[in-house]
Amino acid sequence: MDKAGAFPLPSQIGDVPGAENWRSMYPYFTRFQPEDDQRFWFYNSMHFPEPISAFDAITAEVPYTAIGANTARVFAFPTTLGIEHRIVNGRVYITANPVLDPDEIARRNEVFTERAGYYYANWDRLFGEWKDRITDLIEQIESIEVPTLPEFDDAEVVTRARGIAQNHYVRENYHRCIDLFSKMWHHHTEFLMLGYGAYVVFFEFCKQAFPEIPDQTVARMVAGIDVVMYRPDDELKRLAALAVEAGVDDLFVEGCDPAKVLDALGNRGEGGTRWLAALEEAKRPWFNVSTGDGFYHHHRSWNDDLTVPFAALPRYVELARKGELRSRPTEQLKRERERIAAEYRGLLASDEEKAAFDQMLGLCRVVFPYVEDHKFYCEHWFTTQFFDRIRDFGKLLCDQGVLDTAEDIFQLHHSEIDSALADVMLAWSSGGRPLGGDHFKPIVAQRKKMLEALRDWSPPPALGPVPEALNDPAVKMLWGITSETIEAWARADDDDAVSGYAAAPGVVEGVARVLMSVNDIGQVREGEILVCPVTAPSWGPVFGKIAAAVSDIGGTMSHAAIVAREYGMPAVVGTGNATKKIRTGQRVRVDGDRGVVTVLEDGAA
């Protein structure tokens, strides 16, 4: 295969009919440049499976600002700098900037060893302090208020001689939202890359010491974790058990309407009252989980929309009736990881190698929970609150006639919102009217139409020439981008094979259920094989129901891979094209040992 010609160049990507003006939605620095044709880019469908609105572009801009700062400037990872991103036809493509010069790698390694070593040596204490910082940021974003701009300002401005009118706080509080979002992402990546880095070092040691060891066998040595990100699903199981105990379980049936169930519970006496109280207790904080992965404003939390949790409850209620509501096989996985580690440790020849093995494995087990834990605090709890605060500003702009609906604010870039708010502040102070309606309403209407047109575009998995080296730990561990997956993508249209990362061991056969959105998890039947673009924590309830998981994107440390191992089911991730080649109703075999998915019978519905 000619790798250089495997994928189209960025300059060869044409505009989508009906969305020719898509560039107007995004900042100039997100556009491909002529020199970008010489670089390799891959579509980040893990985080951006849909075209992004103008405001949601901030969920690429800010995270890549933070991840690059921590990777390249704060901890000075030896072999990688940061991640650059571009947007084409509403889709986010990224590339990692590697460090290839051996002398530069050695120079950076000295800095990295000292700085990362401090965090590794004090991980538990620093992680505890991190939780305090991130929960403080959450409290701050939740407390932000949008001034109402009444005819006359509050009398306390005079009686307490505050000297600052309410319109000042319109933009100050908006800026606080953006600034807190940026701080959150810096804290998000503060530990994350170190977690990946520790695992990569152990992974590469194992690959060198045991050349035949499968990738997922290395991962199984750090399995058996109990992390915060599983708590929302555990809360659903607790609510299901309570429904049976309280005698209200008959209300939870397939396809039940959350509003009608809640209304009926109010008329079911003490049992219904107990269940409703337990629901309210679970909601904060555990229902602050997004139906996506925290990168789109329209992926609401369970607190905003109970559809996803109520789609999972009927099955959990049924299992609770039978006494079969079990937790993840965590203890079994811990015993298995000790057995595997002991076997491979025994193959090492020297005491020095065994000591190094013990040290690296021990560090991985210490840092690994953060790889999942942070998601609940950052992408879910904080980010859903962040989007809700932006909605509040949207309501202000709507009330002032600048926008037709509060949701329209997400069709504006965050810098455009700044201008719209300045317009409102001026109008309130002068007694005039905001001029933004005439300016922004036609822009919003055009952008909505363009986003609809962009949804039909099928983005290539990668663009540009394939690089000689892929040295970024996140690119490999999270996205699963390696030379092998790139080659699989390149030949995707040439054969019928569906192959990817062997993420979790085992072989099963079953009927495929292809889902493009977590909102459809109610369609999944017991024992089916989930095929999806990528999973997020909100998919948690489905893992107790399926027999195996297959995803288009993901690596050893992706959410689907981690959760599949914790549930003891086979998984193949990073296939690049499973959702295109497999259809619901087909019988498939998932080989989690080899990373291959085979269609056995058609029967697609």
From TrEMBL:
InterPro entries referenced in this protein's UniProt entry, alphabetically: PEP-util_enz_mobile_dom (IPR008279), PEP_Utilizing_Enz (IPR051549), Phosphohistidine_dom_sf (IPR036637)
Domain of life of the native organism: Bacteria
Q: Which residues form the PEP-utilising enzyme mobile domain?
A: 525-595
User: EC top class, in one word?
Assistant: transferase
Oxidoreductase in keyword set: no
Q: Name one GO molecular function term.
A: pyruvate, water dikinase activity
**Enzyme Commission identifier(s):** 2.7.9.2
Keyword Transferase among UniProt keywords: yes
Per UniProt, which keywords does this protein have? Kinase, Pyruvate, Transferase
- What protein name does the entry list? Pyruvate,water dikinase
